[in-house]
């Protein structure tokens, strides 16, 4: 279940483990972060209204401001009041929230750092997924990801990977996964955008939301989610 990293009068910072969904998707009935929030913090119930699934089901957010993919671990924010929920959503929309991730990608990344600028578009073939289409940074549809190489890893024979820091400047569906795959370095464990082969012992997507920095009334506040054990086992450092 999720662990509370920090709590203030206005918000809650949560460390989501891999395998747990942020909120139900309308297709499955299973535990979620939003349901757990409603249980642990009754004052969060109803905050943010409902997310309506493609099936038409109204699913309460219970203050949850944003989401992570099921297999992604790391930091999530929830609001304790509707006012704070609206404020945080506004900060996300204005791109004033700084999000930082850690990931293991397949192969040895050639560059020490770089920037990926590409629109995220829906594909037509099965299985339905997203793809990157190059565009200019000034394009309103542009998704932007900055990356930096931390360490190149050589595991078992033939196992090459790179531990990278990621800073998405936009928040599109599957943005980090699609962007990294588009430059030839899919995230380890990503069976949708990369090969379905084990690497470095990961049994899930090797993506962790390590930090988030948000503007507050008295300055910037940063919340950090410790590295999960599978990252540590693979040799990661925060």
Overall description:
The longest helix has 12 residues, at 82-93. The strands form 2 sheets. Strands 1, 2, 5, 6, 7, 8, 9, 10, 11 and 12 form a 10-stranded mixed beta sheet that branches. Strands 3-4 form a two-stranded antiparallel sheet. The protein is built from 4 helices and 12 strands, in the order ββαβββαβββββαββα. The chain is mainly beta and 238 residues long. The protein has 2 domains: 1-94, 2-Layer Sandwich (Pseudouridine synthase); 98-213, Pseudouridine synthase (2-Layer Sandwich), CATH 3.30.2350. The protein is globular.
Task: Please describe the topology of this protein.
Blueprint: E1 3-7, E2 11-16, H1 33-40, E3 50-52, E4 58-60, E5 73-79, H2 82-93, E6 98-106, E7 113-122, E8 130-134, E9 142-154, E10 160-168, H3 175-182, E11 207-216, E12 219-224, H4 229-233
Parallel strand pairs: 5-11
Antiparallel strand pairs: 1-2, 2-5, 3-4, 6-10, 6-11, 7-8, 7-9, 9-10, 11-12
């Amino acid at each position: 279940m999720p662990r509370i990293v920090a709590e203030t009068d206005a918000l809650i910072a949560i460390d989501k483990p891999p395998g747990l969904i942020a909120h139900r998707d309308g297709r499955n009935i299973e535990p979620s972060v939003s349901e757990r929030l409603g249980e642990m913090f009754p004052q969060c119930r109803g905050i943010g209204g409902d997310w309506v699934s493609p099936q038409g089901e109204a699913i309460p957010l219970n203050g949850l401001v944003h989401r992570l993919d099921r297999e992604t671990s790391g930091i999530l924010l929830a609001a304790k009041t509707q006012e704070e929920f609206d404020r945080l959503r506004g900060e996300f929309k204005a791109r004033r929230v700084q999000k930082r991730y850690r990931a293991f990608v397949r192969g040895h990344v050639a560059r020490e750092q770089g920037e990926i600028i590409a629109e995220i578009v829906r594909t037509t073939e099965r299985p339905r997924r997203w793809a990157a289409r190059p565009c200019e940074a000034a394009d309103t549809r542009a998704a932007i990801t900055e990356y930096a190489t931390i360490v190149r890893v050589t595991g078992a024979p033939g196992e090459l990977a790179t531990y990278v820091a990621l800073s998405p400047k936009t928040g599109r569906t599957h943005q980090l996964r699609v962007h990294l795959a588009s430059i030839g370095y899919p995230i380890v464990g990503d069976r949708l955008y990369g090969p379905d082969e084990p690497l470095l012992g990961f049994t899930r997507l090797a993506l962790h939301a390590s930090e988030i920095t948000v503007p507050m009334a008295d300055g910037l506040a940063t919340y950090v989610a410790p590295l999960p054990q599978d990252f540590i086992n693979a040799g990661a450092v925060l």
